[in-house]
């Protein structure tokens, strides 16, 4: 299996394999590559943080899984905010945020994450959380999470809910 494809238990490919390599952080130009990154997939890397963007091949609505790995702290929050707003600002696919690999988040990181979610919802794009690191669960439990925030145990459960239409439409 190459790096552009991931498989579920039923062996159906989830990521598009266009024959072209995914966009890397070094090649990423926020002004021009955002739509392509959402269509082809790729990885954005920051100090102590990696975002793996995985567009799905099939399903209605179209879904993009964003896997967060590492930490959001002062050393990466500015650049993360800049690139995340560029990438997700014009997104029209449903988003599944996989936060199971996000080991630490500071207040700036929480603001960035909520900003992505709220901006997507303003555009009537569904956003759900498909998995959360135990640390993050504790942080969110201590905060007053917005009531419309939908959290699933993992990406598969989130994807099934989106496909089945059991996630309410964004406000």
Structural notes for this entry:
- It contains five helices and six strands.
- It is of the alpha/beta class and 171 residues long.
- It has one domain (28-164): STAS domain (Transcription Regulator spoIIAA), CATH 3.30.750.24.
- A six-stranded mixed sheet has the order 1-2-3-4-5-6.
- The chain is globular, with a radius of gyration of 15 Å.
Query: How many separate helices?
Result: 5
Mean pLDDT, to the nearest integer, reads 77
CATH architecture classification name: 2-Layer Sandwich
Q: Identify the strand order in the major beta sheet.
A: 1-2-3-4-5-6
- Cα distance spanning the termini: 39 Å
Helix content: 25-40%
Q: State the CATH topology.
A: Transcription Regulator spoIIAA
The gyration radius over C-alpha positions equals: 15 Å
Give the beta-strand count.
6
Let me know the largest β-sheet: 6 strands, mixed
Provide the structure class: alpha/beta
Which regions have little confidence, pLDDT < 50, spanning 5+ residues? 1-24
Question: Outline of this structure?
Answer:
It is built from five helices and six strands, in the order αβββαβαβαβα. The protein has 171 residues and is of the alpha/beta class.
Strand and helix map with partners:
Elements (H helix, E strand, L loop, with lengths): L33 H7 L1 E5 L2 E7 L7 E10 L4 H12 L5 E12 L1 H16 L4 E6 L1 H9 L8 E2 L2 H10 L7
Parallel strand pairs: 3-4, 4-5, 5-6
Antiparallel strand pairs: 1-2, 2-3
Give short descriptive properties of this protein:
5 helices, alpha/beta, Transcription Regulator spoIIAA, 32% helix, 6 strands, disordered N terminus
């Amino acid at each position: 299996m190459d790096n552009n494809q991931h498989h579920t238990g039923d062996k159906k490919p989830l990521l598009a394999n266009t024959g072209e390599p995914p966009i890397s952080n070094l090649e990423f130009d926020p002004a021009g590559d955002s739509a392509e990154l959402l269509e082809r997939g790729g990885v954005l890397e920051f100090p102590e943080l990696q975002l793996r963007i995985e567009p799905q091949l099939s399903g209605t609505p179209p879904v993009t899984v964003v896997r967060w790995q590492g930490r959001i702290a002062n050393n990466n929050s500015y650049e993360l905010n800049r690139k995340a707003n560029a990438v997700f600002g014009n997104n029209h696919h449903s988003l599944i945020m996989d936060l199971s690999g996000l080991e630490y988040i500071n207040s700036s990181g929480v603001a960035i994450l909520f900003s992505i979610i709220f901006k997507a919802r303003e555009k009537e794009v569904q956003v759900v959380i498909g998995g959360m690191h135990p640390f993050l669960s504790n942080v969110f439990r201590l905060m007053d999470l917005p009531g419309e925030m939908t959290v699933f145990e993992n990406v598969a459960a989130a994807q099934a809910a989106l496909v089945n239409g059991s996630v309410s439409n964004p406000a």
